[in-house]
Amino acid sequence: MLLHGALQSAASFTDLGAALADRFTVLIPDRRGRGLSGPFRPDHCMATEIDDLGRLLAETGARNVFALSAGALVAMHTALANPAIARLSLYEPPLEFGGVQPRYWAAGYEAALAKGDLPGALVAVLKGTGDNEIMTRLPAPVLKSFFAMMMRLRPNAAVGNGPPLATLIPQSTTTSS
After folding, report:
1. Residue 11 lies in a domain
2. 3-state secondary structure of 67
3. Upper half-sphere CA count for residue 163 (Cβ side, 13 Å)
4. DSSP state of 167
5. N- to C-terminal Cα distance for the chain?
6. Which residues form the AB hydrolase-1 domain (predicted)?
7. Rounded to two decimals, what is the model's pTM?
8. Which DSSP category does 6 fall into?
9. Total structural domains in the chain?
10. Average pLDDT over the chain, rounded to whole?
11. In a domain, 177, yes or no
């Protein structure tokens, strides 16, 4: 089972899945609210994500999980509660280390969502994760303007091979992942 991060969909793992398919049965679900999984529920939270992954494991018989970023947190919490996971591999889980404390983006994210400000919510996540990519080093107002323009001018444009950017932003004010 390959589990993608927060601003991704199953399409993010297409190449990895293809590379593993000669040795494994590969399952790449869309996490709830992303890709083909259907909408977020109003009460979407980590417990929802854990339940979703647990159900997928039970229904498929999968026992090995590779997970990225926020998906890694979901997989880690699921493994603590669900003995179905025999092997777990986590890549870039947003854990606290050094001066980086990824959970502190949640308040700014939720405040932006409460105002209906999807670009602001996205910037709160990008700035709060501690990532050092070039985009995250740009000033917040520049990023916000850029994302707002992209969502307005190309509302149905895919992100890479995945779904449109606005559809990847959980719009519940209950902290998800």
Report:
1. yes
2. strand
3. 18
4. G
5. 18
6. 2-119
7. 0.73
8. T
9. 2
10. 84
11. no
